[in-house]
Design brief:
- The protein is α+β, with helices and mostly antiparallel strands and about 90 residues long.
- The chain is built from 2 helices and 6 strands; from the N terminus they run αββββββα.
- A 6-stranded antiparallel β-sheet has the order 1-2-3-4-5-6, covered by helices on one side.
- A hairpin with a 4-residue loop joins strand 2 and strand 3.
Length: about 90
């Protein structure tokens, strides 16, 4: 809701993070990767961008985190599972 006007239909965000497909054990919604959290606590929602850029949304932890990076041309990068593990350690 922005200035009293609902911009998206009710339930749209919930629909975008519902699992729609699976690739190599990772679930995928509408442009969101759904990474399982430890102990079946649900999912971390993430967007995986060019050059190692990552966006994480962790609803249960009430956290949004952004990793910027530029790992093209063979430079090292932080894998998405390790980035998520670091976030969870930092908030637990």
């Amino acid at each position: 809701v922005w200035e009293g006007v609902q911009l998206l239909p009710a339930g749209w965000v919930r629909e975008t993070v519902a699992p729609r497909a699976e690739d190599q054990g990772w679930k995928y919604g509408y442009h969101w990767w759904l990474l399982p959290l430890p102990d079946s606590q649900g999912y971390a929602y993430t967007c995986l961008g060019y050059g190692g850029q990552r966006l994480f949304v962790l609803p249960k932890q009430r956290l949004v985190a952004v990793f910027t990076g530029w790992n093209i041309h063979g430079k090292p990068y932080l894998p998405v599972d390790k980035a998520l593990a670091r976030l969870l350690r930092a908030v637990d």
